Amino acid sequence: MKRIDRLILRSFIGPLVLTFVLAVFVLLMQFVWKYIDDMVGKGLDFKVIVELLLYASATFVPMALPIAVLFASIMTMGNFGEKYELVAMKAGGISVRRAMMPMAIVVLMLTGVAFYFANNVMPNAMLKYRMTLYDITRKKPAVNIRPGEYYKEIDGYVIHVGDKDRDGRTLHDVVIYDHTKGIAETNVIVARDGVMQTTPDNQYLLFTLDSGYSYSEPTSGENYQRRPFTTIGFERQVISFDISSFAFSRSGEDLFKGSYQMMNLSQLKANIAKLDSAYDQRKAEMNGNIYATMKVWQQYSNNTATAGKVDFYRMLDTIGTAQRTKAASYARNTASSIGSYIKSYGEMLQSDREYINRHEIERQRKFTLSIACLLLFLIGAPFGSIVRKGGLGLPLVASVGFFVLYYVVGMISEKAVRESALGPEGMWVSSLVMLPIGLMLTLQATTDSSFFDASSWKKFFSKPFSRKKKKC
């Protein structure tokens, strides 16, 4: 490897790694803000939170890589141009195309890595991520009974505590409303003091109450008016609450394994073939049911096939008014029934087709996000050499602009594919939009064109005015 290649790679890999980490971090912060309410106040272990963030970060890698390649290529070539290092390379016989070659090799390797990651690593990471997130959102908040507040998280109970000691266990002026029997009976337990603790397996919450009363009054049911209001005093009473649902429990992988986002290419291909077969079968079933509903008209057509053209108006004139009304009513009901049936089955078929399209979208995305690294490099590197601006300002603005264009076009085309307005190849629309831009910029950069040079445009537009001044 030549010294110039090492210089270019050092200048490129540093911004690439930094931008990649920042892109993953920004996407991860968006995820955290979205699900912060589902994670706070549940007493989750630090290990579980770190595990969720790692799995979520892995799902952002295919999107963060193209952003990193675009920004790093613009910044690297812009720095070379701004510091006249690109001019020195040209003076030494190194063209822009040759200067881009080491970065292009790295980007090609990244394209292969991105495809391998999207096809093999990301499905497993997405499975773990969805499973962990589901378990966290399903977990109830940790038991935190505060003085002066009504605690309602335990099903069937409302607990009010007047005061709590610093140890967090000793309670004073405890009131427990028992609603486990619904509206049939009202139960209230009042105690002067108590101690709160959990069992070693964290399955039950125990209240050891001292010096209190238990009040019970039936409010409905058979002969409830004859049953008396009951008051029972106690010196000590232990009440247990089932808090097994508050514990963090792991769900099985089978719950999410069938999702298209958790499949690789071979699994997606097999599942698409299976879904297409089921779709065709349901479509044939719909057609068969419609033909069965119209069998009366088919039989009539068969019986009159040899009679030539049928004059239905003359046929209606030969029957009575009552029969004509009955026939018209039957025809309307049959048509309405068939119309409702077609509409219902049409919605089912549309839903099935959309589900198949989602598989196709996921299948094509594994390729498009990988190729995006190469396409955005073809835009970023020549653009940086043309504008000759390094640093963080212009490269950041340009990177955001190009990527927003790529992302918006991709979202529009993805929606069109999902709604069957375009075929699966519609997922490549964003790539086809960016490819001419990249080729044009590369051509402009490698041929030293002044098309994007502001000074050349300023000189071009200033010529007519300079000629007028000379004539004057």
Please write out the topology.
Blueprint: H1 3-39, H2 46-82, H3 85-91, H4 96-138, E1 150-151, E2 157-164, E3 170-178, E4 185-198, E5 204-218, E6 230-242, H5 265-293, H6 295-303, H7 312-317, H8 321-387, H9 393-418, H10 429-446, H11 454-471
Helix pairs in contact: 1-2, 1-4, 2-4, 2-8, 2-9, 4-8, 5-8, 8-9, 8-10, 9-10
List keywords for this structure.
single chain, 472 residues, alpha+beta, six-stranded antiparallel sheet, 11 helices, 6 strands, flat
Concise summary:
The protein is of the alpha+beta class. The chain has helices at residues 3-39, 46-82, 85-91, 96-138, 265-293, 295-303, 312-317, 321-387, 393-418, 429-446, 454-471; strands at 150-151, 157-164, 170-178, 185-198, 204-218, 230-242.
How does this model look, in words?
The structure is a single chain. Helix 2 (about 45-80) packs antiparallel against helix 4 and helix 2 (about 45-80) crosses helix 9. With about 475 residues, the protein is an alpha+beta fold. It has helices at about 5-40, 45-80, 85-90, 95-140, 265-295, 295-305, 310-315, 320-385, 395-420, 430-445, 455-470, and strands at about 150, 155-165, 170-180, 185-200, 205-220, 230-240. Mean pLDDT is about 80; it is low at about 300-310. The chain folds into 3 domains: about 5-140 and about 365-460, no CATH class; about 150-245, no CATH class; about 260-360. The longest helix is centred in the last third of the chain and has 67 residues, at about 320-385. Helix content is about 65%, strand content about 15%. A 6-stranded antiparallel sheet has the order 1-2-3-4-5-6, with no helix packed on it. The chain has 11 helices and 6 strands.
